[in-house]
Write the structure tokens for this entry.
Amino acid sequence: MKIYEPQGRAREYSPLALNYFKGCDHGCIYCYVPKILGCYNKSYNHKVVSCEQDFVELKRSAKKMQGCNKHILLSFTSDPYCNYETTETEHVLEILNYYKHKVAILTKDTKKAFKDIEIIKKFGDRIKIGSTLTFDNKEDSKAWEPGAPTSKRRLEGLEQFAEQGVMTWASFEPVIDITQSLNLLKQCAKYVNHVKIGKLNYYKNLEKEINWYSFLYEAVKICRENNLSFYIKKDLAIHKKDIYLHENEIEQDYLNL
């Protein structure tokens, strides 16, 4: 239960991270975690959730990192508000707030996260809450993300936080249906502060069918028309061709707290 520096693609989302859940009961079939951890442990079952509740170790880690001025993502190996979660994330936030850390939350259940609004508001401008947006209809969402809330619920939660003055953001990765992703981008632009946009990975046949240049062009257009700050992940940015991207829009730390 230590704060650490992520590597590879994860680094584009946050300079620091904290993982305390193992497994995730949202059951998203595109999840990269089983693919990564499964390489090292053939018996690993990502659908079985447990929590490393060593808050003493977390306090030591948070105290050691105090004053680093880098935000900490919750989290990369699970959802901080998965169905299994009860009060674990609240305890984590209390510790991180005590040591004045900056925090970025990424969850598919922003409505559930709202139960922790009081501790979240104590962070002031040191926290932001975001959600991964994928499908704009219940059928596709349940097919790909059987245990997760629909994007409609995620958007409702983001709007709730925005109304409370909490900084909000959205992650567009994976992008499986570009029409649906663009529709969701238009919707969230009304009340999120920024978005991070990527593509689809680990599904080569499906990736080949998608016109990534067209998706990038339309996504950038929507963001600029709505004065929405955005970051384009490296694997999508390589498809830009004649699309001009400002230096900040491809700078991985541009949207950090």
